[in-house]
Structure formats: C-alpha cells, structure tokens
Amino acid sequence: MNFVDLTLADIIEEWPDRAEHFQDIARMMEGRFEVGDLLAYIRDGRFDAHGLRGEDGAAPLTVLTSTVDYPRKRVLCLNAVAGRGIKEWLDIAREGVFNLARRRGAALIEARGRKGWMKLIPGSSAKGKFYLEAEVT
Hints:
- By secondary structure, this protein is α+β, with helices and mostly antiparallel strands.
- Helix content is 35%, strand content 32%.
C-alpha cells in the first residue's frame, strides 16, 4: 500500500472507492462543505488530495491537506481524513503524512478531529473535538 498524491482525475477514476470518503468528510465538516465544494477546492488548488492506494487498486484512505505559510513557520494542515480499516494502514498513512510535510518544507503538522481519532494516540483523551500539533523532524 502506498501513500500517494491524488489529482482530481485520480479521484474521479477512483470514485467508486473514494465517494464514501468524500461523503464522510462533508458530514464531518458540519455544513461547511458539500461533496461538490470539496472537489472544487481540490480543482482550484485550495486543498490538496492524498490517499492510500493498494497494489490491487483499493483506496482505503483519503486525506485533504493545505499548506499555510505563517511569518515564522510553514504548517501542513490536515483538513480532513476519511477511510476504512484504519488498523491496517495507520502506520503507512502516518509515515506518508510526515514525508509529505518534509517535501513541503513544513515544520509542523496540525489537525483537528473527532474524539474517536484520539483512541489512536496512546495516552491521549478528548471530549468532543480535539486540536493536535506534531513537529516535523
């Protein structure tokens, strides 16, 4: 399984596998986006799309990112993450996100999410939603 950059053409080609991810992302965004808005953001370069792709063509994960240049630091923002079978691909995805941050010259990764994701981070707890930062080394 490989962490890959996705173009809009890739997403359309893999739509049978990725449609559910985009529907989940739109739902998680709580009224900020509909699926068409997310695709327009990718088309316009406001979000970048990435995901996992298996040798068999399976697409178990979709990640939407953006890079923000603050005056003193470049940050890779994980805007949305959706997928199935997380236990199978979490380590691969984590490595892919950190490699992406390094390629972009980011010093920090930031993410927001639902408390369910916190169970994947040992020793953490959250009620409702969380904000997470990780330094890129």
